[in-house]
Structure formats: structure tokens, C-alpha cells
Amino acid sequence: MNANSIEVRGVARHYGPVRAVDGVDLAVAHGEVMGLIGHNGAGKTTLFKMMLGLERPSAGAIKIDGIAVSGPRFRDVRRRVGYMPETTSLYPNLTGLETLRFFARLKNADAKQCTTLLARVGLGHAGARPVRQYSKGMAQRLLFAQALLGQPRILFLDEPTHGLDPSGVSDFYATLDELRTHGVTIVLTSHVLSEVEQRVDRLALMSAGKLQACGSVQALREALDLPLAFDVAVRDDAEPDLRAVLTPFAIEPDIRDGRARFRCARGAKVGVLAALSGLGQRLLDVTLKEPTLEDVYLGYRKAAQ
Amino acid sequence: MSAFELRPVMTIAAKECRDRIRNRWALAVASVFTVFALAIAYFGAAQQGSVGLRSADVTIASLVSLVIYLVPLIALMLGYDAIVGERERGSLALLMSLPITRSELLLGKFAGLALALTLATTIGFSIVGVLLAMRFGAVALVHYAGFVASAVGLGLAFLSISVLISVVAATRIGASGMAIVAWFGFVLVYDLVLLALLVAFSSRLPSTVVPALLLANPADAFRMVNIFGFADMARFYGLATVVPRSLANPQVQAAALVAWILVPLGLATWRFR
């Protein structure tokens, strides 16, 4: 068994002079959840398609479980993979159950699991209805069920929660957590960074066709050394003293309605906390926030520019 | 290169055919064929002062023109978005992520659409066939069955062309434009150009050129199959003496029609890879 589920080595994809993907190396371990993020045109969709074998790389190699995705054993690869595209209209005249059975036959998967899968994605009641009567969220659930056909070892999910309502998003991630416990490798893209932040083991951040950074959310935060956000509640009479204790750190807090908000460098965190504790009983509450994934993403984008 | 598998081809073909039956396309086309075939078969001889079914050959001669105009148009409309439509809907990427090859997808699509077209054409022309059999016996039915088979062949040839268009075109709108141009070109313009060529260069052209050029158009190949397939009709059209013996052979003409099914489909498969 290969150590990695997915191995991308020196992969490039050129369209004439345009380098959509330019020398990317990436390895995804078995059972890992990897998020792929980047701005529009960063190359993540092209990389995604190449990992699925939908496009051939101009250079480099991609292997899934040690097998070349576009080689003679491509059927083996694709039977191990489930893919949920971002925007796809399925066949309107087929029912949900017929749609799943169609894809099951093409995937050589057991058609008996279709009913179970429909129930698993919350469409047990709608399997006999034509897909043209499905809402966007229902169609998205059906696409997810399709990706789960044949018990794939690797899932590629492109904007999987697009069109889902909050309960749909919650159901989706609950299923994903369950799959994760069974060792399924998951690669997902999403523009909803707050969703991704809590659910991935690692993030690959793409920019201008290159892999700009790759690591856990925390590692990416620390590598960028973004400031921490403080939200401090103090008694009204403590405002001058609060300003005074922060002056040595060159911090000018924004104080409104008894709350002070300011940012400080990660390295100054302990010192600032110690200084705040000097306010004694006049300090009512302290909330310390790590930079969000959005902050991290924007920080990397700024660095790339 | 992975070995070709029949199972995905059959699965896709079954789904395509079922889709066309369920959305009532097949029913609509069969109804159109039935109404037009009955009307033309019954009133086809009205210019000669009579109505009603005459011989099988005369009925077929009347229906040949209907088929040449209608069947290619329907076949082109059926297949023009086979691939480009999947691409625009985003489902092509999903299909290609499955353990199937591009050739299997394309051939499955073609087979399913071909089956739907064959069903619609056969059912659509069947009532006239039954009437001919009742009136003129089994021989008439055999002749008529040959005509229907050639009509199916014509449909499949244009379906093959439309699938090639669907592979080459970048958008569905572009594909529909190309399909319309193909219909005009093969059904309306080609014969006019050939006629002009004949008028302008008749004395200098070898006798085989124009008949060979007729076979280079599936609509004309269909017409020739039906004219030369029946001795009475060949005499009626006065072509037996004009067309060289080698090209007057209905088997050669049928082979030309089959080539018109296989070559565009082969090109589409090659291009789609």
C-alpha cells in the first residue's frame, strides 16, 4: 500500500503561453482531508481536473494509490474515486433513483446501494421524483450521493455545499466526518472559507498556477505571523489606564461602549495579557481571536502580489 | 490505452433512448412521420387525377422526397448537442470521471440516439406498410420494408454527421447553426451545385463523375438506393441509362450510405479522443 493516497509531482498544464498550473508538487495521505483554495484563475480547478484524469498534464505525473491517473489502469483509479462537480445539471427526465442507478452501472458499483445512499443524503422521500422537480439543494444532495457510489477511497468535492441550506450543510459535513473516520481521503474546494477552516487537516493555497503554501490552518497562520485580535471589556473608569498599559506595545485600541478592540503581534501576546491583568477588577472580559482563514488567505494573496 | 468495454456503451445507449422516449420526442417524431406518410401515400397521385394507394413503387417514389427533407432534419436536431450539450451542462466532466473511455461515451450516445430514431422512423412509417400489405400483398411489404430500412440508414447517416458536429462545436448554439448549414448543404444546395456543374461542364466531365458525386451526398445515395432498388422506378426516373452500371448497383449505393454512417462517426470518435 502506498504511503500517500494522491501524489502530484512537478505537474504543469499550459494552454499556449498561459501557465494554468506551473510545477505543482503535492501529496495527500490516506484518510487526510485536504482543502484546495485560491482565487478564480489560480489554477485549482485545472489541478482538480488533472487529479481526476479529466485533463492531461503538460508535464509531471499524478498517481492515485500509486497508479497513474491517465494510464492504462485508469479504470482502476476511477473506481476508487468519487467526484462531485460544482455545477452540473443532471438528466431532468430521470428520477433520482434512476440517475443513481445509471451512474452505478457506469461505475460498476452495486445498484442495490442506490436506495440506501438516497436516504443517507436525505432524499429517501424523493427517489421516485424526476430530477427536473428537484430544488438546487436536492440536486446537490443527489450529486453527493452519486459521488459516494461504489464506496470510493478518495473523494473529490468541488464546492460541495454550493446551494445547500444550513441544515443541508450540516448534514453534508456530518457525512464527511463519518467518511473521514472510515479512512476516506477527501480533497475539497470551497469559497466558503469559514466552513473549510474547521474541517480540513491541511490546506493547499494556490496562486497564479503555483502552490503558494500548504499546511494545517494553524501552520499557515503561524508562517504568515498575522496579528491576533483582542476584544477586551473594561469598566468605564479604566479606559485611560487601558491606553496606558498598551502604550509600550505601540497599540492604540479602538474603544467604544466599554469594549476595546485592537490587534497585536503573535510574539507580544503574553506581554499584552500580563499588562491587561494589571487592570485587576476593572478588566471584565478578554476574548482573543486567531486570524480567520479568510485573514490568512488574504494575507497570502497580498504576499503573492 | 484501455480495452474497449461494451457494458458502458449499452448503459449510456439505454439511458439516451429512454430519455427520448420519456420526453415524448420519439412519439412526436413517429406521429409526424405517420401523418405525413399517410397523407402523401394517399394524395401522392392527386396530380394524375386519382387519390388512394397505388402500387408500392409509386407510394415509395412519393415518400422518397418526404424522407429526404424530413429525416435528415430530425436526425440533425436529435444529435447536434449530444456531446456539446453535456459539456455545457457540466455533466461531461462528471461522466469522464467514471471508469469509461471517451469512445465508449460517444458510441453509447450514438447507439441510444440511433435506437430512438430507428424506433420513431419504423413506427412512423409502419401504418402505410400495413395498408400496402393489405392492398398489394407480401411483395409490396418487402419493397416497402426496404424503403423504410434505407430511410433509417439515411437518418443514421445524418445522426452520425450531427454527432460529429456536436464534438467539433464549442457551444450548443454553434452546433445548431452547423446542423442547419449541414441540412441546407446536403439537402438543398448540393444538388443545385451538381446541376450547375453538369450544365457548365457536361461535355468535358467523364460519365462516372456526376453519379459518383451523387453518392458523395447521403441524401442522394438514399435517393439512388430507392430508385435503383426497383426496376420500375429506375425506368420511371430514366436514370438507368445515364448512370454507369458500376454505380447503378443498389449494393454500391447502400454501401455509400453505410459509409456515411461510419465515416463521420469514426471522425467524431477520433476527434473526441
Task: Work out the radius of gyration of chain B.
Answer: 20 Å
CATH superfamily of the largest domain in chain A: P-loop containing nucleotide triphosphate hydrolases
CATH class of the largest domain in chain A: Alpha Beta
Approximate helicity band of chain B: over 70%
Please tell me the total number of domains of chain B: 1
Shape of chain B: globular
Strand-residue proportion of chain A = 25-35%
CATH architecture of the largest domain in chain A: 3-Layer(aba) Sandwich
Overall number of domains of chain A: 3
The span between the termini of chain B is: 11 Å
| CATH topology (fold) name of the largest domain in chain A | Rossmann fold
The assigned structural class of chain A equals alpha/beta
Please state the overall shape of chain A, judged from the principal axes of the Cα atoms: globular
Q: Any low-confidence stretches of chain A, pLDDT <50, length ≥5?
A: none
Largest sheet of chain B: none
Output mean pLDDT of chain A: 90
